[in-house]
Amino acid sequence: MSSAGIADLGPLNRRKEQRAWFFYDWANSAFATTIAGVLFAPYLISIAEQAACGFVGDDDRTCRESLDVLGLAISPGSLPSYVITLSTVLGALLYPLIGAIADRTAHKPALLAGFAWTGATAAGLLFFLVGDNWLFGSLVFIVANLAFGASTVINDAILPLISEESERDRVSSIGWAYGYAGGGLLLAVNFAVVTFHDSLGLSTSTAVRLCMLSGAVWWAAWTIIPWRGIRPHAPAAVEQVEGGLLARSFGQLWATLKDLRNYPVALTFLVAYLFFNDGIQTVIASAAIFGEKELGFGTGTVLGTYLLVQFVAVFGAIGFGRAARRYGAKRVILVGLLGWMGIVTVALAVPDGALIPFLVLGVAIGVVLGGTQALARSYFSLFIPAGKEAEFFSLYHAMDRGTSWLGTLTFGLVYQLTDSYRPAIFALIVFFAIGGLLLLRVDTERGIREAGNARIV
């Protein structure tokens, strides 16, 4: 029987799944921006400062300069950096196993939703972070951040399943643009709530906690679209190992780690990504602290600047995607890294309370933020063998949210040594420089051949 009259529905089905997939970036960006990016770190510092300024001996006016954590003296200003560091180290242990499990199941959309709703529930508990209970806030944030990273592993692993190789830069960039648009929309509402909290009859603390709760609800609600809109995709080329799902997943993970030496280009990119993404993630996590605690801006001003970053990042992601089609993803990422180096250098000299330079810095971050992250994701997908998408992306996120602790640790230690966030943020230039030099060594065409993928034309 001839099939000449049967239409190819593959592109149409891919576009439907891609549209549903875009909405997970739209959903989880509420946590990344409103909670992790803007509100959590400064709020946790204020909670930790209250704990440090409790009763000391008979003098209730004396404040300790640090918290006592398992016998270690921790500065309240460094606490968020250390919390993120612990979370990312734990992620390094969990994400590769999660990726191995995901590659052995067709139900990636259900896994994605499960991790998303777990993270959203933990994030929602931050509404109850009051008084001086910094330990409670730290623990629930760690759970939320781990679940956020795990869901992102699954989400990125779906990208090669719903797009052809020639579509990846475009699809990945649009996904990031959706993320910045969605996160920016909620951030705009939260900006109004924090700015006009007095008119709404709310204290600053209550306004911040309500905004963090809104981020959790947004994340959970919009996840329904990718959960329902992406179909299951059968596993392909998984390792034949014995035992139950967990035992087989450990077996596949071990096989992949041993096999990784056969993909040296992918490995080189992962190491490069470890460094430059470390710098990016630390800037994102520390920007609110820098704006409030170093430059002296209020929470409302920092929220407004973050909103500006989100708006600009939508166009930055799309613009970088278009530039990649003309110049290649690798070259465009390298240009982005030069931009990041310029940003942390300028941050060293921004005057206290100088709003215009701070806004210009925000615009610059927005331009390079979405583009470098979107293109790194699609560029790495070219080096992944079929059937190992989740495992390779779990290693990718082990370098992202799993091992990006060097940057936050460096930031925290430099602040603790200098008592200033300026040298702390400038120290991140090392991560962009090393990452860029390693990226120069990545041979794109060789990496595509090693993975057995078609050449991109």
UniProtKB/TrEMBL annotation:
Localisation per UniProt entry: Cell membrane
Domain Major facilitator superfamily (MFS) profile: 265-457
Membrane topology field: Multi-pass membrane protein
InterPro entries documented for this protein: Atg22-like, ATG22/LtaA_families, ClC, MFS_dom, MFS_trans_sf
Entry keyword RNA-binding: no
GO cellular component, one term: plasma membrane
Keywords of the record: Membrane, Transmembrane, Transmembrane helix, Transport
Glycosyltransferase is among the record's keywords: no
GO terms of molecular function: chloride transmembrane transporter activity
Pfam families recorded: ATG22
Transmembrane segments: 21-45, 79-98, 110-130, 136-162, 174-194, 206-225, 265-290, 302-320, 332-350, 356-380, 392-415, 421-440
PANTHER family, A to Z: AUTOPHAGY-RELATED PROTEIN 22
Name this protein carries in UniProt: MFS transporter
Upper classification of the organism: Bacteria, Bacillati, Actinomycetota, Actinomycetes, Propionibacteriales
